[in-house]
Amino acid sequence: MLIGILTVVLLIVIVTAIFVNTSPQFGGTPKVADLERIKNSKHYKNKAFVNDELTLASTGFKWQSLFQFFTNGNNKVPLKQLPQNNLNTSFFKTKPSKPRVTWFGHSALFLEIEGINVFIDPMLGNVPAPHPLLGSERFNKDLPISIENLPAIDLVLISHDHYDHLDYGSIIRLKDKVKQFYVPLGIKAHLTAWGVPANRIKEFDWWETSVFNNIEFVSTPARHFSGRGFTRNKTFWCSWVIKSKNNSIFFSGDSGYGKHFKTIGNMYGPFDFAMMECGQYNEQWAHIHMMPEETIQASIDVKANYMMPIHWGAFKLALHTWVDPVERALKAAKSKHVNIATPIIGEPFVIGDEYPEKLWWE
């Protein structure tokens, strides 16, 4: 019996190793020149990227909660398809005079700003995992618009390389529509492994900037981690500031609450609009994801005139109910007099005009 158990374990290890080392979903490794730039980052220490403040991936893991990840009970997923606004190609032909945002669920956002199309963390796949059997499915079966019917994309912004933000299948289907990719240090290797030409990828350390179509894009800090397969923190993570003559927008990426929000607010705020992580949290990993109340405080720290909770509404990646993020955020926003937008998936809205505020999840 012992021999049989050991044989099964060995087979599982072998199959897993083959899968990780041969499947394209896991991406690539940096070339020599790119690796040298990574090593020169002051945020890269002992062969891994680090945060500016102590950040633990686990803040008290409870083994009894492990089984709960594999169940959908306690309202962790919606019982039916969520309300969704569907779009067609012709919609994007009419350009708004002010920035327009369309939420695709989770942290995927399509931003039209001053004549260009920017897609932020375009995870458009069905499962946020390297294999369909390794993750829970998207709440809605369909996207607001198919990838094939999306317009040309001038710029894709990536916050980090976790599967719910950087998706192999989405990049494969999007890459020929995209002029340029802006990514944190180390992620270029993933994209080139997936067929994106190196000259269409620009890597950023924290506080590095680039101007695209007279719009400044700044890679700013986040309190998180990275990793695909067996690797951890070999690529960097970030938030993004998008600042033009007329508009100022912030995207938090994935982040635990930290002092960096006030720093960003003091350096680049106030912001017309901020898209803030609010979901997939738990006290067991409190350093790397914010509780909704912290999300609202972070929007105050960055000096946002209006905020939108993201990182919810598409996938089950934690143990809270699927509506808990937005309900707690709304309660905290009301108590702190924070303006909050709550669009349905696929609902375009213009920054500076009337913001969607319906309680559609009820």
TrEMBL record:
Coiled coil: none annotated. Pfam families: Lactamase_B_2. InterPro entries: Metallo-B-lactamas, NAPE-PLD, RibonucZ/Hydroxyglut_hydro. Signal peptide: none annotated. GO terms for cellular component: cytoplasm. One of its GO terms (molecular function) is N-acylphosphatidylethanolamine-specific phospholipase D activity. Residues 117-312 form the Metallo-beta-lactamase domain. Gene3D superfamilies: Ribonuclease Z/Hydroxyacylglutathione hydrolase-like (3.60.15.10). This is Metallo-beta-lactamase domain-containing protein. The lineage of its organism: Bacteria, Pseudomonadati, Bacteroidota, Flavobacteriia, Flavobacteriales.
